[in-house]
What we know:
By secondary structure, this protein is of the alpha/beta class. It is built from 11 helices and 14 strands. It folds into 2 domains: 4-224, Rossmann fold (3-Layer(aba) Sandwich); 231-296, Alpha-Beta Plaits. The chain has a 6-stranded mixed beta sheet with strand order 6-7-8-3-9-10, with helices on both faces. β1 (4-15) and β2 (18-29) form a beta hairpin. The longest helix is centred in the middle third of the chain and has 16 residues, at 169-184. It is elongated. The two termini are 37 Å apart.
Amino acid sequence: MGNTVVQIENLVKRYQELIALDHFNLKIQEGEVFGLLGPNGSGKTTVINCLLSLLRYDKGSIAIFGQPMNPEQYAIKAQIGVIMQNVAVLQELTVRENIDYFCGLYITDKAKRKQYVNEAIAFVGLEEFEKFYPKKLSGGLLRRLNIACGIAHKPKLIILDEPTVAVDPQSRNKILEGITELNRQGATIIYTSHYMEEVEQICTRIAIIDKGKNIAMGTCDELRRMIHRTENITVETAELPDAVLKQICALEYVYEAAFADNTLTVLCSGGKHNLVKLLEIFAQADIAFGRVYSERPSLNDVFLEITGRELRDKE
């Protein structure tokens, strides 16, 4: 990792009695794909708006590329690309004209701008659609256009706020591959999403935000080590007597076990041979079983244990 790209220290943002950010801290290094996770209302969007100087905050400091960030820092803003959840393109312009317009806000040299626009169109795979107007595009293609408009000027820092919401699998894969490629080309990425598998797939480090605070931060593996659970075991079986379930619950590293809908779910904390011991109990009781799964906790499991609630809380 290189230099610090984003440094947020003790950020406080209040809305009258509501504390949206409570002494929030964050440090992102050059070259990271940094995931921001949090339930609705946790403060993610407030962090981004403060970072971009779109929102005044009450206390704290924000530095980007080592410089204090404020609304007049146009040179810094020119190095940032922002792709928000709501698609922001001009309906009266074609795909190419939209990308050219947004690129032209930063790149005044016509030859360079044309080159950048061509590269952005190719990057998101919209070559066949460059003369289309936005209303003619599918949701997935609109998302790709939105991304192209945000990255055409080749920013060093790219903020993506849920860029894959409600898109088809093909477009989602295209977008995720594109983000990874942008990072490979040198961009530092801040990525927010409600899709945990995406965050696990592309993010080098992750911060979990709740109630305006950064409550956990690290790689996926580091976050897994912060929670009680170390293994999820699932066994499909037609029957499981209560006495056998009690035996399973009594295993040394098992802290929770439940049987419902012909499926036994066992949660473990520690231990290396939990599955072997579990299947030994099945053998001793002469119980037949079908498919068996053993897996590490997912990022969703980590999030649920750390925050105590699902990511997709109702607003």
